[in-house]
């Protein structure tokens, strides 16, 4: 991963491959953002005009490269758009800084060192810029022969054979200031684990089945002092985990339930994170048509997010107990697969009539939610690429939040906004529950077609223990970016929800999430 340093050096004398500056979109054209004063001075105060001549406007994510002025040790200046110029005496939005840093880092693939002279008013700004750099420099080249000559490690390239930006110096940072150092260390821990989640989402399903995913979790748990327990088919059968077993019944790769437990001796609260981990979703007997199954390696993005968040919490030493539950299975058609019309007895004892085997995520989550509930945590949050209906409702960049407690839903939404993850609170209308009534079982896994994302949330609520606060994040839209990269977001796995979960854990540890 890109190395980060804080520097008080002046931009002209710093040895680097490039100097990154910010440009805002002003009322009368681009304006040079704070932090780039020395660079602007070297252009005799005409840098904004030069950039406008080159076609720059300051729009968010826009990258313009130009030769550095005489006397600079760096040969290139990279001007990155920050979007609209803020009001007088107001700073730039944290997400604007994060996205700009990410866009610049991606544009500097192949460079050994870059100096970032973006606006830094405090340690928090340094943290978001660092996070943007680390996330923007990511890509996944593990399966590309062309990338092997430039880097051997998984997930460190930029998708075009060039090595990632090797080092980023944040100008205006305070190397000896504890707050700045802590912000950089937090950014590094969160970004590294989020990038690990991206790696998992991007790994082809022939190399990442439930057993392989569980092995990755076990290795990370050992490295970071996290207790881990893995239930295989035999243990799941003995325990009566009918949902997970039913979904995995058609695959040659057996299902797993992984429990990761991070405990803090100073913790006063406990959280449980539950992740959907369908390592490949063919739809099962209710087979997906061509055009809908090519990216289904990403159907374990919820489990990847939960895994990454637990490890990040451990690395940050948060004063809250966090347990992660990874419900892992591969949903395949075969002679042993669950059929539409079958009835599964879940871990909770409830029976579910399976009307559609492609509504499998809620089945594995149901077992994991009940397992988490038995430990009586203060709150449970599940994360899943659950429904196409949520994508239709909110698009490809925003995830939905449902909960059994309005205040908790709002708190999770606030944590998402603080983290820079677009999310939106969604309701759980009671009238939709009746559509899941079954003449054969306690509940069916399908209900009304309209509002399908909300129906899925109501189904999951049935498997949350009484009196336990719960939220459900449907990340089907933003979990996998099928378009081009933007800001710090790459094509492919995005690591959505990792930052929200970490922020929730931080706020609970500080006692300000209820």
Largest sheet: 8 strands, mixed
Helix share, percent: 25-40%
Rg: 24 Å
What proportion strand?
A: 15-25%
What are the segments in which pLDDT stays under 50 over at least 5 consecutive residues? 151-158
Kindly report the spatial arrangement of strands forming the biggest sheet: 8-9-11-10-14-18-15-16
Mean pLDDT: 95
Number of strands: 20
The SS-based structural class is alpha/beta
Number of helices: 14
How would you describe the shape?
Answer: elongated
Head-to-tail CA distance between termini: 35 Å
Features of the shown structure:
7-stranded mixed sheet; alpha/beta; 14 helices; 8-stranded mixed sheet; 514 residues; 33% helix
SSE layout and pairing:
Blueprint: E1 3-7, E2 18-26, E3 29-32, H1 37-42, H2 47-53, E4 63-67, E5 76-84, H3 94-107, E6 113-117, H4 123-136, E7 167-171, H5 178-202, H6 210-224, E8 227-231, H7 233-239, H8 242-248, E9 256-262, E10 270-281, H9 301-316, E11 321-331, E12 343-345, E13 351-353, H10 361-373, E14 379-384, H11 388-394, E15 399-403, H12 406-419, E16 423-425, E17 443-444, H13 452-461, E18 469-474, E19 480-481, E20 492-493, H14 498-510
Parallel strand pairs: 1-7, 2-5, 2-6, 6-7, 10-11, 10-14, 13-17, 14-18, 15-16
Antiparallel strand pairs: 2-3, 4-5, 8-9, 9-11, 12-13, 15-18, 19-20
